[in-house]
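Data deposition worksheet. Section B asks for the primary sequence of the deposited chain exactly as it was used as input, without tags or linkers unless they were present during the calculation. Section C holds the resulting structure in token form. Section D is free text for depositor observations; keep each observation to a single sentence. Incomplete worksheets are returned to the depositor.
Section A, Depositor: J.P.
Section B:
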Amino acid sequence: MLQDYTWVYWGLWLIGATVLIQALVASISHRRQKHYIPGVVDSQLGHESIVFRSHRTFLNSIENLVMFLVPVVVALFTQMDALTLSSLVWTYAIARIIHMVLYYAIATEKNPSPRSYFYIIGLLSNLVLLVMLAIHMI
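Section C:
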């Protein structure tokens, strides 16, 4: 089983590494503020602030991570097709990385913003995974 799912495991590793990097960026940008209070992000900050954007990027990833990881774990336990699962994991991982980069780079209140499209790609990966998993388990 380990051999079949190697690419899935590497994709999950990449997702974990991405979230760790987001936590580091958020922590570093937060601590570089002139008026730093540990654990508190100023509610007056908006998209023009990298502190706000890095904090929101990290929280957005945490919010979406559980919804994606639970079906991946179930797919692994039920031995869903490794190629299908790895494709969905890598699509999600790459979409989340691009989402992160765009969130850091573009300070906009516009909706949808360019990052929204990559959020949707990740969300669709999750939806396809849930549907494929349900079909697999029938």
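Section D:
The two ends are 21 Å apart (CA to CA).
DSSP finds four helices and no strands in the chain.
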